[in-house]
Amino acid sequence: MNILVCISNVPDTTSKINFKDENKSFDTNGVQFIINPNDEFGLTRAVWLQQKSGAKVTVVTVGDSSCEPILRKCLAIGADQAIRIDAVPSDGFYVANQLAALCKKENYDLIITGRESIDYNGSMVGGMLASLLSCPYVANCIQLDIEGTTVTLQREIDGGKETLSASLPLVLGAQKGLVEESDLIIPNMRGIMQARQKPLSVEAPMEIEAATTVKHFEKPQSKGPVKLVDADDVDTLIELLQNEAKVL
């Protein structure tokens, strides 16, 4: 089985986020980047399939050379090879098309994306990639069983879980539940040393325009001080909710 795991390079949630160029671009100075958590759940599940059935696991990201440390970490976790598409990931449409161009060069049986990335939370790439490849897509996947070319999956839906079946090739959006946080693989020294010998190739991007442009970024407004209202002062509470909080 040939598995492709799509990886996003995202800021650690503890990083302080700032913008530059008149708030039109993200300032990466002092920011620690990590593997997108939903992608890491998918990568761990792919490594399990590698260990169980000898699947080949390739990781790919769209980004510049600053993304290579996380690709090396993916190799240390257990991926067999890594690919970096040398382009700035300007929006989900652009990324999906770059990934689709790569997938059309190689026959992947299973393509794993994260349900969403924790920076933009767009939840777009997996669905658009599947559409471009004319493959089934299952988002919010929390269970995966493969028997030959038949796949049984379970995904989270509003109010419950849904069990589905599909045939390979398939694109799925991984999330917590596909594996648990306690199952995530922490690279050991042996894995880190082996990662240095595994191939990391750089691919030229296809020529395509992004579908969106950024006008500016804006941080959420700082929260004001808390106002305490006496439990018996209902009139003041209602006035504050109407005139200041504007929730009534």
Largest sheet: 9 strands, mixed
Count of discrete structural domains: 1
Kindly report the average pLDDT value. 94
Widest sheet: strand ordering: 11-10-9-12-8-1-6-7-13
CATH architecture: 3-Layer(aba) Sandwich
Strand proportion, as a percent range, falls in: 25-35%
Helix content: 25-40%
Distance between the termini: 56 Å
The total strand number stands at 13
Low-confidence stretches: none
Structure description:
The strands form 3 sheets. The chain has a 9-stranded mixed sheet, sandwiched between helices. It has a two-stranded antiparallel ribbon with strand order 2-5. Strands 3-4 form a two-stranded antiparallel sheet. The longest helix has 17 residues, at 37-53. The protein is of the alpha/beta class and 248 residues long. A hairpin with a 2-residue loop joins β9 and β10. The chain has helices at 37-53, 68-77, 92-103, 125-133, 189-195, 234-243, and strands at 2-6, 9-11, 18-20, 25-27, 33-35, 56-62, 81-85, 110-114, 137-147, 150-157, 160-167, 170-174, 200-203. The chain is built from 6 helices and 13 strands. The protein has a single domain (2-216), classed as HUPs (Rossmann fold), CATH 3.40.50.620. α3 (92-103) packs parallel to α4.
